[in-house]
Predict the structure.
Amino acid sequence: MPSVRSCPQSCHALGVDCFYCVQVSHHPPVSAVYAINRREGFALSATVLAKSKFYGNSTSAILDGRVNLVLLPRGEEYTMTMPYAHCKGILMGTLSMELGGKVTIDCEKTGYSAELEFKLRPFLTIS
């Protein structure tokens, strides 16, 4: 039975009409997310398969899946991939976290597309 989380009342004050997060599979761990905010004009859905790799003093969390962002007033749907998170210094040294990899963004309706490359640079460092 999947576990379902929905947003508390405080989400409604922010304009979020609906938020659901469901772990649809435990082995492998797959999660699904859905949110809609009519006031801001968007709906978002995602499926994520979390994978990890351990490299001795560092580890990576690979988020394999897709994010679909719909801009409601325009009727445009953008499909995106996700970067991976890389943590260094988990056993010794300075602990830092970085985002890396390529993210693609595509909109079939407009034909727009973009590719972002995240270079591994620390954005969170704990000494």
Q: What stands out?
A: The chain has one domain: 3-126. The two ends are 41 Å apart (CA to CA). The helical segments are 9-13. Residues 3-126 form a domain with the Porin fold (CATH 2.40.160.120).
